[in-house]
Amino acid sequence: MPQLTEVLLLLLPAAFWLCSLPLLADARRSLKPRIVASLGGSGKRFNFATEESHTVFYHEQGAETLLVGAEEKLYHLDFNSSAGLVVEFKAENYGNCKGQVNCKNHLMVIDKFNEKLLVCGTNAYQPTCWHLTQQTKNKTQYGPGFSPFVPDQNFLILFSGGEAFSTINKFRNNGKILRFHRISGKDTNLYTNDHLMEKPQFVKVTVIEQEESYKNKIYYFFREENQQKNLDADFTISRVAQLCKEDGGGEGSFAASMWTTFLKARLVCGYLSQKKFFNKLHDVFIVKSENWTETRVYGVFSNHWNFTAVCMYSIGNIERTFRTSPLKGNNKPLPSPRPGECLIGGQPTPTETFNMADSHPELENEVMPIRNEPLFHSHIHYTKIVVDQVTTTNRDYNVLFLATENGMIHKVVELDHEAVNILEIQPFQTQAPIQSMTLDSNMKRLYVGSSTEVVQVPLDMCEVYKDSCENCFLARDPYCGWHKQKCSSSLHYAVLQNIAHGSPEGKCDEVRRTLQLVSGRPPRDDSAISVPPFSRYFISCPVTSHHATYSWTQDDVTKLSCPSNEKTCFYHINNMTDEQYGKYACIAREGEVSQVVAEYMLLKAHGSVMLPYRWLVVLQIAALYLLLK
Ligand SMILES: *[C@@H]1O[C@H](CO)[C@@H](O)[C@H](O)[C@H]1NC(C)=O
Ligand SMILES: *[C@@H]1O[C@H](CO)[C@@H](O)[C@H](O)[C@H]1NC(C)=O
Ligand SMILES: *[C@@H]1O[C@H](CO)[C@@H](O)[C@H](O)[C@H]1NC(C)=O
Ligand SMILES: *[C@@H]1O[C@H](CO)[C@@H](O)[C@H](O)[C@H]1NC(C)=O
Ligand SMILES: *[C@@H]1O[C@H](CO)[C@@H](O)[C@H](O)[C@H]1NC(C)=O
Fold first, then answer.
1. Looking at ligand 4, which residue's alpha carbon is closest to its atom 7?
2. What is the per-residue pLDDT for 401?
3. How far is the CA of 540 from the centre of ligand 3 (A)?
4. In a domain, 574, yes or no
5. Which of 382, 395, 541, 602 could form a disulfide with 598 if both were Cys (CB 3.0 to 4.6 A apart)?
6. What is the pLDDT of residue 276?
7. Mean confidence (pLDDT) of the chain
8. Which atom of ligand 1 is nearest to the CA of 80?
9. In this structure, which ligand is nearest to the CA of 533?
């Protein structure tokens, strides 16, 4: 049991750290999800037959189906027809590993390779791949390097233009050193030298194609143990590494099967002036752009106290850093070609260049985020991220979907100088951590899976904003806007919206009716309530928007401002004296909009309410009589 003082000692720095950040009250509010909604009926879902502790998704953009690789089976889920099929993938030879824990075929990789669907699994410690056509499988020659031996291993695999790359060891007892390999496609398979990464945890890999194909690069994102052991250095350090995709290896037999263009740089995410850093990278999402230099990298990072931050980088900047930075610890002039430079025609890299890159693999310069600081940071522990781009009448917006530790999805809109958390979606019927998440940006859908279910979440869940014009504007959801008396999808209609400010700016012509729509009923005479004199009483109104401030007025005089973190705004009256009777209204203020969300008329009760009290006295006397008898 930790002592209270220990807990306090742990919490103190966190509190100071938080307080010292430039957080305005408004900014803090905008990072709380504005409203919370459960997916309910607007999502389609499948439940797994058994609990699946490890799943891998495969989804083609625009398709209706999702493939889910699991233990000894593959689920083929058609969300259009709601038909779910199971393709069995039993291990071929359990004799390999009788009695061992993972003596199963855990499917680990599903991807297109050379125009065919490839499914790879652990196959009872004998990694194997199958081609899958319709629902029939056919064993391939691929296996070692395509799937790890056990399901909980951290790895990356990349299929690109007939080549395959991975960080998976081909042999089970190959030691603990992890390398990045080219495993298929060219005559020579390449691997990274052993000293280049220190206990890496891989996060994401991608290929960036440039105008000239010999310059195409593989970038992979990972974190590793920090070699610097001074006091304020963090234990982990996050990195981006580069490799030329057409790397021809080095000169001489030893270097011929080595990647010669490996370089790595620190990915910085934090507030530099305050030296507050988020050093642990958890997930990366890449938003490709037609102009490769404008391709964006979104990273989710955390710090010691499990606060998370999202930082954005541009590939143009990453590429320039690799092309121009000095090498850390090197004070000799750089040879030509420069370390890390891609050579035309897959020529082998000259020994001098390779030796320099190999002995000084780290850049002196660090990769800085766009605008040199996080897009936002939060006390919520985010674990996964996907980013969609949505086009509205005015401009394009990037919308982030972040998975929380406890299985929620936060929808965050990226604006020019801030991020606004507009919605928390509870996707599952049974709350559980999100294991897999895939975006279909063509169909504007998100697929999320837990160990028991998979759901399809439409990105335009506009019905959650209730059909009030004011609320539809205040939602600031680029996928939704006001159209024909409804909060409608901007993907299908020319809608009215104001994402930048959330203000209706007089466009809600039926402002007067808003009141009725918000409270879901016409103004009622029965909001009049009789309350006995000198009694206790309370009235309440629901807090639906966490970005609004709620207050109670009595006869238009403000009586109480509610704390922003409560679910309900209560007004307690301890003693109904004469001056307490009157008209009460609960007002929600958000941006430039004020709305009455609840209204009550408290009237003095006379005879009718006193009657039950008299009956009570009669009953008490009767009870007393019975007791004494
Ligand atoms: C979805 O299902 C409907 C009815 O079952 C069918 O008409 C339609 O073609 C299907 N769409 C796709 C894209 O499969
Ligand atoms: C399965 O693979 C074998 C050998 O690669 C090939 O000859 C055969 O045609 C394949 N079968 C199917 C159904 O693709
Ligand atoms: C790509 O974008 C960069 C930076 O915005 C710009 O300098 C460059 O001219 C663009 N290239 C093309 C081919 O449009
Ligand atoms: C941070 O989160 C991780 C993963 O959920 C957990 O194991 C760890 O204990 C947390 N650390 C703190 C300081 O809360
Ligand atoms: C309520 O107010 C009245 C009038 O001020 C006073 O006589 C009475 O004692 C109060 N009752 C309570 C429970 O405080």
1. 306
2. 98
3. 56
4. yes
5. 541
6. 92
7. 88
8. 1
9. 5
pLDDT tens by residue, 342-369: 999 889 999 999 999 999 999 999 999 9
Q: Which residues line ligand 2 (CB under 6 A)?
A: 133, 138
Q: How far is the CA of 138 from the centre of ligand 2 (A)?
A: 6
How far apart are the CA of 535 and the centre of ligand 5, in A?
9
Residue 159: how many other CB atoms lie within 10 Å:
19
Last residue of one domain, picked from the residues 478, 501, 519:
519
Distance in angstroms (rounded) separating the CA atoms of residues 470 and 488: 13
Same domain, 531 and 492: no
Ligand 5 binding pocket includes 561 (Cβ within 6 Å): no
What is the CATH number for 513? 3.30.1680.10
- Tens-place pLDDT, residues 588-598: 998 888 889 89
Select the more confidently predicted residue: 358 or 611: 358
Cα 292 to averaged position of ligand 3 atoms, centre (Å): 8
Query: Are 500 and 547 in a shared domain?
Result: no
Is 522 a residue whose pLDDT tops 50?
A: no
Neighbours of 318 (CB within 10 A): 22
Interatomic CA distance for residues 433 and 222, integer angstroms: 22
pLDDT at residue 623, as a whole number: 45
Pocket test for ligand 5, best of 531, 534, 537, 580 (most atoms within 8 A of CB): 534
Residue closest by Cα to atom 14 of ligand 5: 575
Q: Which long-range contacts (CB under 8 A, 24 or more apart) does 127-132 make?
A: 127/168, 128/92, 130/89, 132/74, 132/87
Query: Does residue 96 lie in a domain region?
Result: no
Residue nearest to atom 10 of ligand 2 (CA): 138
| pTM score, whole prediction | 0.88
Count Cβ atoms within 10 A of the Cβ of residue 232 and give its class: 0-12 exposed, 13-18 middle, 19 or more buried. Answer: exposed
CA 438–ligand 1 middle distance (angstroms): 22
Chain segment 295-305, per-residue pLDDT in tens:
999 999 999 88
Task: Note whether 555 and 616 are same-domain residues.
Answer: yes
Hey, CA dihedral for 117, 121, 126, 127, is it positive or negative? positive
Lowest-confidence pick of 20-34, 325-339, 379-393, 415-429: 20-34
Ligand nearest to the CA of 380: 4
Residues 483 and 571 in one domain: no
Same domain, 602 and 544: yes
pLDDT digits (tens, 9 = 90+) for 223-261: 999 887 766 668 899 999 999 999 999 998 889 999 999
Tell me the residue range of the domain where 532 lies: 527-628
Residue 586 falls inside a structural domain? yes
Could you tell me if residue 585 is inside a domain?
Answer: yes
Domain of 599, CATH number, reads 2.60.40.10
Contacts of 588 by beta carbon, 8 Å cutoff, 6+ apart: 544, 545, 548, 549, 550, 594, 595, 597
Do 549 and 582 have their domain in common? Answer: yes
Q: Kindly identify the ligand whose nearest atom is closest to the C-alpha of 575.
A: 5
Ligand 5 and 213: CB distance under 6 A: no
Statement to judge: residues 513 and 600 lie in one domain: no
Token pair 């408290």: residue: 602
| Total structural domains within the chain | 2
Q: Which of these three, 481, 498, 519, is where a domain ends?
A: 519
Judge if 515 and 531 occupy the same domain.
Answer: no
